Amino acid sequence: MNGEASVGPVDFQFPGSIEALLDADVDGLLDAPEKPKKVTATDRLERAFLEIVEFRRSHGRIPDSQTREIAERKLGARLEGILASVEKSAALKPVDEFGLLKVPDAPASLDDLLEGDELDLLGDDSGLLDVSDLPVRRQQFDTGDVARRKPAEDFEKYDPLFKQKHAELRDGTSRLLPYPGLGHIAPGAFFVLNGVMLFIAEVGKTEYKKSTVRENKRERLRCIFENGTESAMYRQSLAIRLSDEDGQIVVAHDVAEIFSEDEASGHIYVLRSLSDDPQIAGVSDLHKIGFSRGPVEERIANAAKQPTYLMAPVEIVADYTAYNIRISALENLLHRVFAEVRLDITQIDLKGRDYDPSEWFVVPRSVIDQAVELIISGGIVDYVYDSSSRSLRHRR
Question: Is the pTM of this model over 0.90?
Fold first, then answer.
């Protein structure tokens, strides 16, 4: 044997039948693979719709069939196709968690009807839909959703603003331009509609209303008219009227033209303190430079009670309307330019707390005007303020 262990024959008995062979297959090696379940047309439809649902979950809106983004455009077109089919909409109802296939309610008011007229099929060139000058008819059932003009209770606060704008139009510091588009309907803007000047006092929170193809956003406005009335029409409704009735916007004289893609960002303002405090009144060329999304007059109404205004009334030296500008970034940039001449003073507010105003600078008005022009043109990044010469010089 040479020391090697012998291996005996393996005792294996072949089953005598197919049934016995299958019974002996305890590991399932001989089991036939399961045939994949056949994908039905309903399954394919549901999978396609769930892609749209996932887009809505990720982006917070439905896909747009008109966008240049190919993937989104395909989903938007797919949703429109599903909405056009009653059968498909009914079949997908169990998986429609966001109500994308819900049939919208009928318009409850004329404002709702005009706001949803995306193709401008109801454009009113004849002015037949302008009922602002007609007597208000008393209705038995008033839901409060219809925008009607009513007396403005606090009109005395806005009357000086209208008088100021008319004075600016007379002396040429402001001018009228054709209505430039929806993006300019922002707080603080002045428009002329059918010969009546109106002021956008407030833009309400955005509401979302579903239509058959998309979710439309809309905002209620508080429009103050120079005749002492106000309206709470939707922003889109005012845009339609301004567009159809040759409305105009009131802008500063140095604005040559406004394009539809331009967005009104807010106001760059320059203030002068009327304080009788010797340490403030004795500083020449002291100006506050700031930004406001709404009218500056409202912003400074309580200046005498606020430490940021040095606890004293202020005078508006300049008010510029800025377009296509990110306000916070410009504010930081402008303050860095004049950082060397920032006023170093501590104020105490009405509660006895210390406050260090940060927007007051000792700089001539002419230099501020130059800086604002450079801000609007984008050239301010190439300049610094030289306190010794009291002028802006090109950055080396």
Answer: no
